[in-house]
Write a structure and sequence with these properties.
There is one protein chain. The chain is α+β, with helices and mostly antiparallel strands and 228 residues long. It folds into two domains: 2-170, Sandwich (Jelly Rolls); 183-226, no CATH class. It is built from four helices and 13 strands. The chain has helices at residues 2-20, 33-39, 186-194, 214-222; strands at 27-30, 44-46, 66-68, 74-77, 87-90, 95-110, 115-120, 123-127, 138-154, 163-164, 166-170, 183-184, 225-226. The strands form three sheets. Strands 1, 2, 3, 6, 7, 8, 9 and 11 form an eight-stranded antiparallel sheet that branches. A three-stranded antiparallel sheet has the order 4-5-10, with no helix packed on it. Strand 7 and strand 8 form a beta hairpin. Helix 3 runs antiparallel to helix 4 (214-222). The protein is elongated, with a radius of gyration of 18 Å. The N and C termini lie close together (12 Å). It binds calcium ion (4 copies).
């Protein structure tokens, strides 16, 4: 039954990719948090509680593989702006988030307006629509088949400051599906072999040891067949 529900979600996503026909296929946008949660896999949440107001957030969440890299993001207390738990992040401009391993999902609870840019290896791969709605309690969620290792959250229009209540992010459900066709097969195996001995900074270096090798090959083979 789980398999059926998962397949339905994947099919719906694929259908939307096809139906969307935009300049940036492969990314789905969600304003409804429940819909985003239904569509994604495992994820991590940062709620920004537990710090003194004004604390600069940089590498405090490094143990979760995430870094705030623009050096101007501070902890802000505002029950009005941040209904989840009253604590959030003031970007003092944009908020730049870098991930140690490539991600497929990002979601943000935020007040006001927000646009999200996704990057891979320093290259812009997606610019979202402008998310907005009620003054507080908004949600912006992306599901991307093109993995990203950095996201820039920006208020619109500039030079307003991006603020976020909670940040959520997660890795792809099926990292061994290197070509994103929904199953792990011969083309993925060939892609892994083509990358043998290199450090791609993500899949197919599945174990993250800095080189594509035998353990990564075994991981791919162990996941052979349709993605869950
Ligand atoms: Ca929060
Ligand atoms: Ca900032
Ligand atoms: Ca594949
Ligand atoms: Ca490896």
């Amino acid at each position: 039954m789980n398999r059926s529900a998962s397949s339905t979600t994947l099919c719906a996503a694929v259908c939307l990719f096809v139906a969307g026909g935009t300049a940036s296929p492969g990314v789905l946008e969600f304003e409804n948090k429940d819909d985003w949660l239904d569509a994604i896999g495992r994820f991590v949440t940062l709620d920004f509680t537990g710090f003194a107001p004004g604390t600069f957030i940089t590498d405090q969440y490094a143990h979760l593989g995430v870094h705030f890299t623009d050096g101007s993001d501070t902890i802000f207390f505002s029950p009005g702006a941040f209904p989840n738990d009253e604590w959030g992040l003031d970007g003092n401009g944009n908020i730049t988030v870098a991930f140690d391993t490539p991600m497929a999902y990002i979601g943000v609870d935020f007040p006001g307006f927000l646009r999200i840019e996704l990057f891979r290896d320093g290259k812009l791969i997606y610019t979202s629509s402008v998310f907005f709605g009620d003054p507080v309690g908004n949600f912006a969620g992306l599901l991307s088949t093109k993995l990203f290792d950095m996201a820039v959250l920006m208020d619109v229009p500039p030079p307003d400051e991006a603020e976020i209540d909670d940040l959520h992010f997660g890795p792809p459900d099926c990292p061994a599906d290197l070509d994103g066709d929904g199953s792990v097969g011969i083309l993925d195996l060939l892609a892994l072999l083509a990358a043998w001995g290199t450090d791609p900074g993500g899949p197919p270096d599945f174990d993250g040891d800095g080189t594509v090798g035998i353990l990564d090959l075994l991981t791919l083979l162990a996941n052979w067949g349709p993605c869950p």
